[in-house]
Design goal:
alpha/beta
Amino acid sequence: MVTQKSFALRLLVSVMSALSQKPRVIVYHANQCDPKKCTGTRLGKMKRAKIVQNMRQIPPGAVVLNPVSKVAFSPADKESVLRSGLVALDCSWKQAEKIFAASRAGAQRSLPYLLAANPINTYIPIKLSTAEALAAGLYIIGLTQDAYELMSVFKWGDSFITLNREWLDAYAECKTSSEVVTVQREIMQEHSRE
């Protein structure tokens, strides 16, 4: 017989484990970049992400960060990320169009407007490294500590969040993809005037 006390205790344990749940961070690696500069490879070596080399290994229901997606990533994606994972597509920007267009697994989402801080594309909009994309996704869905932990393996890691903090906070306050698009439009207009 289940007592109210034991039921409440099990419910509390279930809620606490859901709250402390770490998201699965996955990198689809296309083996197209310099391994010494590849942030996806580094995340794998540092046990911050699982590396997969076949798109079929992307969990069903995972949120895939894909810059050519027509749907913006938003806090509404948090439940899917916690349940199935957050995936970044790691490939050379020179061959990115082919990889991004071929991606069909999971829920495809594009990150909103942000500036890169990585040594190769510093201050270039949208050209984020794999680690930056994953950190941005985690930050936007409210997992800021996870975003900082992910970026802590890079000397320049804090720079990405510092550079984009105001924008990341604005996106994190949104509820839906369409709200993120509206905020992004305002940010881009303001940034183009500077």
